[in-house]
Predict the structure.
Amino acid sequence: MSELEINHVYKDYKLGNKSKFNALSDINISFEKGELVSIIGESGSGKSTLMNLIGGLDSDYTGEIKIGGIDLKSFKEKQLDDYRKKKIGFVFQSFNLIPHLSILDNVTIALTLSDVKENEKLERAKAILKKLGLENQLKKKPTQLSGGQKQRVAIARALINDPDIILADEPTGSLDSMTTLQILDIMKEIADDGKLVIMVTHSEKVASISSRVVELADGKIIRDEIEKDYKKEKHAEKLIENTQENSAKPKKEGHLSLYSSIRLSLHNMWASRTKNFLMALGVTISLISMILMLAFGSGLTGYIDSLAKSYSNPTIVTVNKVDEMADDPSGGMGGLGGEIMSLLNPTPFTDEEIPQIIENINSALEEKYPNIEYRVSQDGIKYGFSAATGVTKSASINFTVDGEEKSSNIFYLYTTPPYYTEEQMLAGELAGQPKLDEESGEMLGEIMVSAKIASEMGLENYEDAIGQIVTVKASYGQFPNAISIEQKCKITGIVDVSMFETMLVAYLDYDYFDSMVTTNGGTLSPTSLYIQTDSEATTDTINLILSGMQGYTGSVENQMASMFNEMMSTFSIALAIIAGISLIVAMIMILVVLYMSVSERTREIGVLKSIGARKRDIKKIFTTESFLIGLFSGIVGVIFSAVVGGLLILLFNSLLGFAPLAFHWYYFVIALGLSVVISVLAGLYPASKAARLDPVESLRHE
């Protein structure tokens, strides 16, 4: 049985005008092992086309090409890949060595695609390179070798898998006469060792040393001569020892492993390190901005939350009414605007509402939370009052400093919440019921003011305001039924109103303010209810119940914190979207660079396919590259974000006394994951394009 048999093979190429060009016409020929065949003919005669068909690079033909009696047409794609990997060895005129791989790696690449063990792979490659006189060139790159050395490397690569057929396309076309003779001696030695060697050539010198010459013209065989004087020589040692049983059909074996894919990808990335560094830098900057934006949003939100909690008590529930405008979906301000109006002009509770609130809370506790024994009672509720006097009322403080009459408006008049302590004050003590003043002998009410009011008094230090006797003037109630209040009070403390530090805020005892209103013929209606609970868990539960009761909300501090958090959340989302856009830009950049890389490495892809690389292998190499780019970018981005974040925390702490950044471990995990995902997604199309490239066209690519 012939090693290679070709029966009635026709090959046509489709032209742009829908006509066809007949490249091969009724080719009938067979070859045996041990032959050294030269296929000659003018350019366009069909020599290279025939070689591509025999090598399994082109399957678009009619007729039969049998290897060991089995028709190539019966091979599926995977079998064709294995056929090229194990049965065929290609030697190209332009060598087609992969420039960024060492000589050793260029030779072992075919074994890498077969997932041969590392030690076996290196042993076989070193052995054949030594026989070809290249044992001292293993670590060099192809650009460091002469033409003859490059062709010997290409021959070593073709022989490394011990193929049955060697296909050489103009193997001496780029070499000088002396080097040509050396390469022809090697090709003859390969044939004499029992392999079928088919050389496509224009050179009569090459044809003259062959055992057989086949001439093509216009796609047809016009001459087939056997050289009678050809003599085979026996060699003491073969260039490549048999590594597999000779069989017509390729055997099932391993393919490109993940480790080998990573190793090849790292070589490719290092070869284009400047381009890859700039690409990774773009991804890194996007990740750093995203992490910092998330940290700023979380840090500011956390700071506002902690500030609000510092003005509350975990065992006190605060209940305020929501302004009607906040609940009006049609004509009112609604949403955030309505909440602001509720803060500035809170709605008083009626006498009928308070018992109803108590009943609703207790009913919910009984039905939904039977494990909580606590129940709200009228005795467990304290009242409070607050109003932004600039909305519908007026309030002011009159005082005398160094004989000069002065006045300060009170923008926010507040009764002291029961959870307020002296720890939350800048100086002094809490204001309570009126007390006898020893100096004046009068009963004076007590009031606390913000540092801003103290500064309005013209005092150098806000502590100097403590003990000052002032006249409080206020208008309570709605026009035209508003009542006027005027009362002498003594300043007992300076309030820490960090959330309203620029506001004119005054605090009075609720019972005292009630007596002031009552004395002047009015009735004080509370705008806040304070429910004392038995535990923080009960407080959280009641707050949850209140959140489902339409028309009620928490404390002023909580409302302010909620508003700020809502604004910060919106701000954080906006920043995250901006960072996300930069990630999308980085993704497009990766896609473009990898797409260009496919174009730059088209011939390399053709070489890989000629030695048996599957579509899956090509795709794996490019996908692995994009994965590694994303992984390295993510790691660098995470490290730099941590470093930059640490420096910013130190800076803010030194300037502001606190750092509005909060880094959570999952930010870094998300950033790393996003980096990998966008890189892999960006690499899918270039990888798919590379896998689909036609091997014949790829090898012709310049």
